[in-house]
Structures are given as C-alpha cells and as structure tokens.
Design a protein that fits this description.
This protein is an alpha+beta fold. It contains four helices and ten strands. The chain has helices at 35-48, 65-83, 143-155, 169-188; strands at 4-10, 14-21, 28-31, 51-58, 92-99, 102-109, 115-119, 127-130, 136-139, 158-165.
Length: 205
C-alpha cells in the first residue's frame, strides 16, 4: 500500500500545498521562493528518500518567518497523514552526519508527543546570496528552529537536533537537515519483524 498524502494549508499569510511519498526516490519538486530553503528541502528529500511535490507562497514582503514556519507545520502534518496510525514502522531513529568541519546529530521518535530540542548553535546572521535576476537575497537563520518546531507540532513527534561541533552556519543547517532526514527515514521505514503492529506498549500512538 502506498504511503502517500497531500495537504493544503491556506492562511492570510501563506498558501502551501505539499504531496509526500514516504517510500520515494528522493525527488523534490516543490516550487520554493527562498533559495537556501529550497536547497534544504532538496537535501532533506534526497537523504531521506522522500518524494515531495508542491508549491510554497507567502508574505515575503513581511519576512520569511511565516512561510518557513508554516511549511514546517505543513510538512509535519503531511508526514502524520501518510503514517496514519504508525502501524509497522520502526518509530524512532538517530543519525550523526559529518559535514566538513561540522558534526551534527538528529534523533526522532514518532510517539505522538510533540517536543523539539534544537541546539543548532547558529550565529543568527542571515546567509546572503544572489537571486537568478541578480538581486541580493538572504535566508533568515533564526527561522531554522521555527521550521523544525512547526514540523514537530504537525508530525506529533519528538525531535532533538544538536550541533556537536562546527563553524559554518551553512554547514550546520545543511548537516542537520541531512541528519534529520536520515533519522526520520529510519523511523518511518517498515520493520519486517513487527508484522504490522503499532510500535507502542499502549497499543496506539
């Protein structure tokens, strides 16, 4: 049975549509107006082997916070929808990812209780880039934690993100997205020994 789901989140600030395939090939085809954020979602899909399609729109004339946080909420919610009652999955996962001078770790549990600990150790200084039209753009690094907090709330999971060491904010964020992808991939994969049972002594998540 295909583990796929679609969600639309429309507010006065953002319009987000996402379709997720948990058992994909790592393809991300999301129309994303924020360059570095697009890079992060591409990396997340590639390393998690998730297929993600859709479009992100938001009030970027205000700042990036609404769009990035709401995308986290929507992505977490579509994960929860695709997982359903979580029957048969491993449920938890952990991964340590090295990225040049940085070493990052993510641990996740899809146990139904949302809690996010984000120890990314970012400077808070925006990353500056140039758009295709030559105009200066940036990524608000303070939105990184907002994205993952939104994801946790939507997915109803427990997620710990830690920078063990590192210098570059780019490397820290990208490495944490990749570590999270690998940890989540491990958690949501089907455990062949579980025979479709819900992975909880309670009998439900």
């Amino acid at each position: 049975m295909a583990r796929t789901a679609t969600i639309e989140r429309n507010t006065k600030e953002t319009q987000i549509k996402l379709t997720l395939n948990l058992d994909g090939t790592g393809k991300c085809t999301v129309k994303n107006p924020v360059g570095f954020f697009e890079h992060m979602l591409n990396s997340f899909c590639k390393h998690g082997m998730f297929d993600l399609d859709g479009e992100l729109k938001g009030d970027l004339e205000v700042d990036q916070h609404h769009l990035i946080e709401d995308t986290g909420i929507a992505l977490g919610t579509v994960f929860a929808k695709a997982l359903g009652d979580c029957a048969g999955i491993f449920r938890s996962g952990c991964f340590t990812y090295p990225m040049d001078e940085s070493l990052l770790q993510a641990a996740v549990d899809f146990g139904g209780r949302p809690y996010c600990v984000c120890n990314a150790q970012l400077t808070g200084i925006p990353l500056v880039s140039v758009n295709a039209d030559g105009k200066q753009a940036s990524f608000q690094t303070d939105c990184f934690e907002d994205f993952w907090q939104g994801f946790v709330n939507g997915a109803r999971c427990n997620l710990h993100l830690d920078t063990i060491r590192g210098r570059s904010d780019h490397h820290k964020m990208e490495g944490l997205f990749k570590a999270a992808a690998r940890a989540i991939r491990a958690a949501v994969e089907i455990d062949p020994r579980r025979n479709g049972e819900i992975p909880s002594t309670k009998g439900c998540i």
